[in-house]
TrEMBL record:
GO terms for biological process: DNA transposition. It comes from the Bacteria. Residues 8-268 form the Transposase IS4-like domain. It comes from Mycoplasmopsis pullorum. Keywords: Membrane, Transmembrane, Transmembrane helix. Pfam families: DDE_Tnp_1. InterPro entries: RNaseH-like_sf (IPR012337), Transposase_11 (IPR002559). The chain crosses the membrane at residues 256-274. Signal peptide: none annotated. The keyword Isomerase does not apply. The keyword Membrane applies. One of its GO terms (molecular function) is transposase activity. This is Transposase.
Amino acid sequence: MRKNGFSKDGKHNEDQVVIAMAVDWNGIPLHYKVFPGNTADGKTMLSFVLELQFLYKINDITIVADRGINNNANLRFLEQKGIKYIFQKRLDTLSNEMKKFILQDENYTFRDDFFWKEQMVESIWNKKRFNGQYRKWCVFFSPGKRTLDKLKRNNFIDKLNQKAINGELHLSSLVPEYKKKYMDINGKTVAKLNWEKIKKKESEDGFYIIETNILNLTPSRANEIYKRQWKVEENFRTLKSSLQVRPVFVHSEKHILAHLLLCFIALVVLKYSLYKLKNYYKSNGEIQRVTLDLFIDSLRMMTITRKEIDGKVVQEIINDLDENHKENIKIYKDFIACMT
């Protein structure tokens, strides 16, 4: 399992493993699978979905995922198995004709702070083999996303300019994604910013595509469902931060897998507990915003001293924190109430 692979943190000289995870509609993890560290994201989906169906006997399933695993091989596999999907599609994989269709102002409808239009496309392999199935592309333009895209790109270009010497950067200072997107590679060691590429990407600011084989799905509903994909990202962030899944201080494969299992179980317990607590507030008509970090802090700060005689609790003392931690005390007590 321990292999050198691409890290989104830009690290390339460290061993790693790759984790695939599925969560339910409420964001509670239900399954994970570990892959060797040199496995590309797009190569994880097929075996993961088959394992998911086999273990849990799921007949009706809709896969919602980001553009990292959206490739034609994966889509054709899902179509062959009769599995529904809602993916974001990469703009840089489109033909010039489709890019022109997207960037043209015609036929857009405005609703809920974004513009949208849709297009039916054939499911084709290698630009020629049609399998008789169709996909729907829901094209969106968001003014807010346009502002964010521009800000992120400008921040990145500023960082590159700070590292540049006479307008050139060493390749080791670049994330691979941007070597292709914004740069001209000179030989094998240095690169320069390509302003024509940057201007071309600028024209795509604010646009995104959701691709689905649910042909009766409205663009608005497709967008609503896809936006819940952030719940998967939130679970990965919790694994990395609160549960400290990395770095891993064990070396054998058996111990690495055991460490990941413990982290996953802890994640399930945390997310399910938070789900129960939020439902408790909702059923009582109480407005209480509880983040995962606040919930974890409340559990960590509270201590209970119990005195037992013959197996019976005769005294229980919950430490009352100072006035600055009233919210933590309330959350803890409400959590105990909702779980009993």
